[in-house]
Amino acid sequence: MKVRSKESVRHSVNGYVMVLVGLGMLIGGIALQVWMAARGSATVFSVLSLLLLMVLGVLTLAGLYSLQPNQAAALQLFGSYCGTDRHAGLRWANPFFTKRKISLRARNLALDVIKVNDKRGNPVEIGAAIVWRVSDTAQALFDIDDYERYVHTQSETVLRHLASLYGYDDADDTHLDEPTLRGGGAVIAGVLRKELAAGLAEAGLVVDDAKLTHLAYATEIAGAMLRRQQAEAVLAARRKIVAGAVSMVEMALHSLSEKQLVELDDERKAAMVSNLLVVLCAEKDVTPVVNSGTLYG
Fold first, then answer.
1. Which stretch of 42-51, 89-98, 153-162, 193-202 has the lowest confidence by average pLDDT?
2. Which residue numbers delimit the Band domain (predicted)?
3. So what's the pLDDT on residue 90?
4. DSSP per position, 60-126
C-alpha cells in the first residue's frame, strides 16, 4: 500500500533578527582580525576563533529566505522532509535545509477545446476553465512528479468522461428528466467539480470552481444538427398553432350552441371545423369561397 505524504508545520525564525546575528558575527570576526593585526600576535586560539566567527556568520546569512503572501517553503534536510513554512516575510531556517518554494494562490487553467463523443455518440467540441490551488504542499511536491501537468491531464480526462455521460441536448422525448451538456448548467458544473476534486485530492490539490467555456457540435455534423434544431423549432411552433386553433374552434362551436344562433348537425359541424382549421393554421392568407348552395345534394 502506498504511503502518502502529509504536510507538517515547520516554525521558522524571524529573518531580521538573524540578519543582525549574522552581521554581528562577521563584524566580530573582522574586529578580531584587526585587533590581532594591531597587537602583532596571533595564537592558534585566536585564529580558530576568527575562522569560527566568519564561518558561523556566513552560515547564518545563508539560512535566510523570503516568502510572499500565499507562498510556502517545503524544508528538506538531505532529502528528508522536515516540514513546511507558511509564514510570509524574511525568515530563517537551518542553512543546511533545502527550501522548495511553492505557490498557494488560486490558479486558473483554461483547457483547450477538445473533440469527444457525447452519450449518444455524437462528436462535440467542449472546453472548460478550472480554478485550483495547492492545499497540501507535501503531497503536491513529493507524491506527484509534476503537479501542474498532473492537473492538466486529470482535468482533460475528467472532461472527456463527463461528455460521455450526458447527451449534447434532448434529441428525443425519452430522457426529458436527464440533464444535458447544453441545458444542464449548474448540474453539469457540479459534477465536473466533484469528479475533479476526487481526482486531484491525491495530489494535495483542491478545486475552487470549474465551468464549461465552450460547447458545440463538431464541424462534420454541425450542419445536420442545425437543420434538426430548425425542424424542431418549426414543429414546436406548429404544435402551438394547432393547439390554439383547436381551442378557438371549440370556443366558436360552444358559443354558437349556447346562443342558439344556428342549428348545426354533425356534418355541418365537421365542415365548419375543417374550414376554421384551414383558416387558422394556414401559412398564407386564405381566400374565402362563398357557397350559394347547400351541403346536401
1. 42-51
2. 62-233
3. 92
4. HHHTEEEE-TTEEEEEEETTEEEEEE---EEEE--TTEEEEEEE-S-EEEEPPPEEEE-TTS-EEEE
